[in-house]
Design brief:
Structural class of chain A: mainly alpha
Keywords (chains A, B): DNA-binding, Transcription, Transcription regulation
Oligomer: homodimer
Protein name (chains A, B): FadR family transcriptional regulator
Domain HTH gntR-type (chains A, B): 12-84
Mean pLDDT of chain A: 91
Largest interface: A-B, 44 and 44 residues
CATH class of the largest domain in chain A: Mainly Alpha
GO molecular function (chains A, B): DNA binding; DNA-binding transcription factor activity
DNA sequence: GATTCGGTATGGTCTGACCATACTGTGGTC
DNA sequence: GACCACAGTATGGTCAGACCATACCGAATC
């Protein structure tokens, strides 16, 4: 506090203004996924800024999974509004893990939280289990650890989807995405996947019979089997 | 499947190459928060691309909360690696809520999940409650709904921090951030905040005495009081 | 009717310039 | 020697203008 009542003027960059304008337009005009934004050159002229600034704003929106840009001409070309938070979340987690701003332990703990909750939710709602069953079959047919993890990821993401909460499911997908390599190593270390298979069947059965508590327990013990070093029940 | 074995060549944009290179450098050189990246012009020359492409890559990294750019000259100028996922997550949620790609109901459900888990964790660990107490005092002194929500947010974020999981805490902060306006309206609708105060005291006590189940229950009932329309226990 | 081919609007990239900012070093002043 | 004023300089931020590849559109052609 310097007592003068002055506070530092926040530096506002041009592309941030552009972002704010676009966000305002989205809110005011009620734009939703599928709608098109004006072309870069047109937007630049309308806002009285250079195309570079518009492009930097577009890059931000694209990074956040809010727009998708297509080159060329026609109805599908240009910047189209989307709603794909998944890859944005994955990038975010991956980079921050790389910067040592996060630890794998925290990621797995968070995953445990979401998955327990999602399993209980899915069981309570007697959610559709066809996705779970398909992923289970995929794991049985897998010929390598990579392939196994691929279907394992599908299983757990299907479980999150079955919770009916798209936000939780998106976070789940990103978590799995950012720990893929780690999971492959864990499966290779484990060697035998029959324990994991039994766990998956148990989770599926709990959802099918509509037993939330059992579903949560099953998830918890499954993670303890898969990541014995990091995970204590 | 066209049977030819061909697959569409993924269009790779220059700035994406730059991103990949920077990410590789971070991993290989073991760069962490606080380290500096080369200047834009220098990076452009080293990678053989234009400064625009480098700038677009920088914009992406900045959006993801991985770098922070400072103008001027000196040790603090230039692009510095950071690890601030919070604002990135907030932007992401806010924009996707605006696009109707997410519903408030899902945000509050997710918040419920995290907070129940965090409260139980904090209680089990007998975490430090000074932050919770300070936020509680702030709420008592608040003169408006906005001010109340400010300290309420601090309380719940402190609870998430007390879980010891930075990822869960970061998600929590972003969730609160993106639902701020909604929370203010909820408090105004409620009028009397004494019920909320009792809930907060109950949560704090549960953490202090180390009772995880009671902490989770207290959080659950608190949310039911705060958002009666959206939340069914 | 089908095909071909030029026109055109789109994003992607590059170059080169200029600005505001904020440190750095130099030289002068007390 | 300590201090201060000022020019130098490296930084990100912005702009203008050009060119490219892409992909659709539509008219001319067969």
């Amino acid at each position: 506090m310097d007592g003068t009542g002055w506070r530092p003027v926040k530096r506002t960059r041009t592309f941030e203004d552009v972002l704010a304008q676009i966000e305002r337009r989205i809110a005011e005009d009620g734009l939703t996924a599928g709608d098109r934004l004006p072309a870069e050159r047109q937007l630049a002229e309308q806002l009285g800024v250079s195309r570079s600034s518009v492009r930097e704003a577009m890059r931000v929106l694209e990074t956040l999974g809010v727009v998708s840009s297509q080159v060329g001409r026609g109805p599908d070309a240009g910047a189209v509004l989307t709603s794909r938070p998944d890859s944005a979340l994955s990038d975010l987690l991956r980079l921050h893990l790389g910067l040592a701003g996060l630890e794998m332990r925290e990621v797995i703990d968070t995953r445990h939280m979401i998955e327990q909750w999602a399993a209980a939710r899915a069981a309570a709602a007697r959610a559709d289990i066809s996705g779970l069953a398909a992923a289970l079959a995929g794991m049985d047919a897998a010929g390598s650890a990579e392939e196994f993890v691929e279907h394992d990821t599908a299983f757990h993401c299907a479980l999150a989807d079955a919770s009916g909460n798209r936000l939780a499911a998106a976070i789940m997908r990103s978590l799995r995405d950012s720990m893929r390599r780690y999971s492959v190593e864990a499966v290779q270390r484990l060697g035998d996947t029959s324990v994991l298979r039994a766990d998956h069947v148990r989770i599926l059965e709990a959802v099918r019979t509509g037993d939330p508590d059992e579903a949560a327990r099953a998830v918890s013990e499954h993670l303890a089997h898969a990541y014995p070093s990091l995970f204590a029940v």
